[in-house]
Write the structure tokens for this entry.
Amino acid sequence: MAHLEFPPNFLWGAATASYQIEGAANEDGRGESIWDRFSHTPGKVENSDTGDVAADHYHRYPEDIALMQDLGLDAYRFSIAWPRILPQGQGPVNEAGLDFYDRLVDALLAANITPFATLYHWDLPQALQDEQGGWASRAIVEQFTHYADIVSRRLGDRVKHWTTHNEPYVFTYVGHAEGVHAPGLTDRKLAVLTAHHALLAHGAAVPVLRENAGPDAQVGIVFNFGPIYTTSDDPELLAEARLKDAWGNRWFIEPVVNGTYPEELMETPEFSALQIEPGDMDLISAPVDFIGLNYYTRHLVGAGPDWSPERTAMGWEIFPQGLSDLLVRLHKDYHPKALYVTENGAAFDDEVTGGQVHDPRRVEYLREHLRACAAAIEQGVPLRGYFVWSLMDNFEWSMGYSKRFGITYVDYETCQRIPKDSAAYYRSVIKANGVDD
Ligand code: FCB
């Protein structure tokens, strides 16, 4: 069997996020986040699940780092909970919160694992939501920058890879227009405003992170992409696809890399209310060192009700070619210095049998998406690393614990971890620095 070799310094990683795994929601001075409030509001999350305990990573991080070592991971992508650091969003700093990430980072480095820190993976301090509507207020730009400063001052001597936001599309649009994520609002114009503020906050934080993490800092941002395909060349379908692509795939990356919003969006009623102040677009387009992309599936415009592709437990089509097409497109259209796949993976209905978890479909999903990465590298894409979502099963937002994305199974009664077959598979890929063809 032929072997697709990855470049020698390719980073093999796994990803998680604070609210999804940490638990310890009321410990060591952590403040309330919008996800605490949202998940405790009846009807918002499946089965009324909350992140109160989650995978209890806050207490079990040494065991989790041992799992990472066993996998042979080069890098670990995690996020920092803003309300652990600044329980009220601003004001007094909670040293105990900083201490937790300090211990985590030291333990990662001792295990020879490169930390990739995300500042914002959706757990906004509730106080900021209550006082000013969170991202709806321009004041958030300064507040976020202050938070970035505090965290990177403490960790910047050891953490060199930083991302500002995870998937701003999701926390702005899905949180403020679709109402499916915290804070659960349904106002499209408001979503566009929160998006602008999130982008400004990103741009303002970039130089702060560079300053505090020193000359070898690598600073980036993570976007979700769902490439759009059509069932035919019908002009109506193509027009629909173009607009969907502007909203779903170009809205955030273009201001960051080009300093402009897509023309198609500027013409929409949602954008008509947006006040762009002089200097905004320059601030947003502060140069970044890399773009992180999260890829799970594509969208097919024109598909009828009897279209029935192979899907994951999320109902998402399995379409590996979408990842290579996307990587090539990002490289050609935007020329980022470097790209990382910061999330890729699949949920399936895993079960424990005889103390083991056999997840052949996840193994296959990973194999095919890694082949897609290899194909993109082959075409000259500067892809520097890959992070599987996720290191372990966790709180899947509005779906609660019903969806398992981990390569490690978590028993939520006992918090016991059981590496799935996909963990063994991923270990073999890392060891070989490649995937079979
Ligand atoms: C992404 C999120 C991540 C996880 C995966 C399945 O949108 O960044 O936290 O929920 O989807």
Summary: Residues 188-213 form the longest helix (26 residues). The mean pLDDT is 98. Residues 3-436 form a domain with the TIM Barrel fold (CATH 3.20.20.80). The pocket of beta-D-fucopyranose is lined by residues 17, 20, 166-167, 170, 224, 294, 343, 389, 396-397, 405 (CB under 6 Å).
